[in-house]
Structure formats: structure tokens, C-alpha cells
Amino acid sequence: MTTQFSSHASKTTASVAVSKHSQIFAAAILGLTIVFAVGLLPMDAVHNAAHDTRHSAAFPCH
Amino acid sequence: MFFRNIVFAAIAAGILAGIILGTLQHFQITPIILGAEMYEITDEVKPQVTAEAHDHTNPTHHTPEKMAEHLAAIDAATNEHSAQTTESHSGGDHHHDPEAWSPEDGAERIFYTYLSSSLMAIGFALVIISGMSLSGKNSIKAGALWGLAGYISFFVAPTLGLPPEIPGMEAAALEGRQSWWLLTVLLTTIGLGLLAFGKGALRWSGLLVITIPHVLGAPQPAMHGFSHPDATAVAALEALVGQFEIATAIVNGIFWVCLGLLCAVAINTFFKLPEEETASST
After folding, report:
1. Within 10 Å of residue B157's Cβ, how many Cβ atoms?
2. Which residues on adjacent β-strands are paired with residue B171?
3. What's the ipTM?
């Protein structure tokens, strides 16, 4: 019983660790998506709204 | 849930850093952009200041009286121009649909600058907090270093090849610049990552990775500077570019260090890093 419990526990810890890494990865991808939307998206309305920010952050603009 | 913690922390840090960036931008950078937009011209509308009297080889040409005349003429021309093109801020090779929505100058434009600054800061904060979570270090010093790394990756390295531009400046095709910009940001980030976390020889290969985009070289325009027909306007724009490069370098530096520090504070406030949790549970 004890061994079963501990093996179950270690599996859970392992899957939690994997899940945490994938969540960290997902958060980073979300962040990059936002940065690229604000900084590089060619849509006119987005460009015009973020125009001054793009210029001051030295993103390629115009 | 860990993802949610990162997002909350990033939103808090990003909004604060975005307000700092938006304010610095409003007072230090936007006035320069607006100043440059005064000189923006479209192909159809040329200012009437390049008339016959405009002879730069003549020594009496740039007397104070003549300069006043020039500036008055440019003001008149640009006012006429801006009246015709208030709906679009297109100039040079910049072909945007003039019918497209764009914020009105004044409060609306300021609001969107704050909004886009905050969104961008939240995006950067998500990346920094993810990185700090992965490395397991959340001290204030680590935050400042992450901020500095962001400044180098997203500002210093790209501007070495593509200096910050003000509206109306000649530049190579947008797609080429965006690709080089992306490559530079990516390789600088990887290079700094190797320098910070690599072991042995791998660590120093980071320096090599950082130099790759600069060896390849950024796409350059056929001509540098401004194609404005009036020399006085070009001189004014060149002075603005000088101010703009200094202002953006300082403002972005302050922004990134503040963002890094705020990310460290947000991690310590909103959640504990996984390594700490495992350390405390064992």
C-alpha cells in the first residue's frame, strides 16, 4: 500500500512539474503574441492606434 | 493555477509600467513625433517653399529675416497640408488607407498611446515573469537584470541596425526591416540566455549568436535622411531625429528597468515560484 501511495504521489509531482512548464510556456507565448500585435501587426486601425508607441519603442514602422 | 498567477502578476506589473511608459512618452517623445508630422508631405501636396528665391549657395540666403520667411512659408504649407490630410498621417512610402480609422489628435490619441503602451508592457511582463519562473529567481536584483536584458534585446540591439525613426524618415521596405528586427530580437534573446544560463563554452557562444544579425546587416534605404524638398525642413527634421534617438534610449531604458523591478515585486506579491514551493514542502 505504502509503495503504491508513494509511486502515485511521485507521478502526480511529475505531472504537476510538466504542467507548470507548459503553463509557463503558454504564458510566454501569450506575451509575445500581445507584443507582436501591438508592435508589428500591419492592420491600419492597429497601426494607427499604436503609432506613437511603435515609434518610441523603435519598432519598424511606416 | 500557475498560468493564472503569471497572467495576474503580468497584468499588474504591465499596467504600472505601461503608465510610466505612457507618461514618459507623452512628455518626452510624442512632442517630437508631432513635430516631425508637421513636415510630413504626400506626393500630391508639396509645400510652396522651394520657390526661385531659395538659393542656398547665396551667402545672404540664410539671414535671420530670410529664415523667418522660410519658417512662415513652411508653416503655411504644412497647415494647408495637414488640413487636407488630417485623416491620414501617410508620408513617403507609407501607404495606409486614408479611410482607415485612426484616433483623433488630442485626448483620444493620448488614450490609445497609454493603452498600447500598457498592452505592450503586459506582453513583455508575461515573457519576463515566465522567464523568471523558469529560472526560479525572483529577487529584485534578478528583476533588474531581466529588465536590462529586455532593454538590450528589444531596444539596443535592433536600434544598432535600425535607428529609431521619426515620421517622414527614409527607410527600407517595411517587411525587410520587420524580419531583421525579429531575427535580431530572437538571436539577442537567445545569446543573452546563453550568457546568463549556459555552461562552459556554450556560455560564450552567446556572444557569437548576438553578433550574427549585425554581421548580416540591417536592410538599408536607398538614401538616408529625408526626401523633403526644403533644406530648412530637412535641417529641422535632422535635429528632431537627434533628440528622438536620445529621448527613446533614455525612456526605454527607464521603462525596461522599471518593468523588470515591477515583475519581481509582482511575483513576490502574487505567487511563489514553483522551486520555492517544492523547497518549502520538502
Report:
1. 23
2. none
3. 0.82
Contact map slice: B 38-67 vs A, CB within 8 A: none
- Phi, psi angle pair for B90, to nearest 5°: -85, 145
Q: How many domains, chain A?
A: 1
- A52/B contact by beta carbon, under 8 A: yes
Quote the cell numbers at residue A61: 514602422
What's the distance, Cα to Cα, between the start and end of chain A in Å? Answer: 68
Q: Which three cell numbers stand for residue B138?
A: 525572483
Of B268, B271, B16, B273, the residue nearest B122 (C-alpha): B16
Domain-embedded: residue A33: yes
Q: Say yes or no for a CB contact (<8 Å) between A21 and B94.
A: no
What span, in angstroms and rounded, lies between the C-alpha atoms of A56 and B91?
18
Cα angle: B132, vertex B137, B142; to 5 degrees:
80
| Cβ atoms within 10 Å, residue B106 | 8
A34-48 tens-digit pLDDT: 999 999 999 999 999
- For B234, residues 6+ apart whose C-beta sits below 8 A from its C-beta are B225, B226, B228
Is residue A32 in a domain?
A: yes
The answer to whether residue A62 sits within a structural domain is no
pTM: 0.79
Q: Which three cell numbers stand for residue B178?
A: 520587420
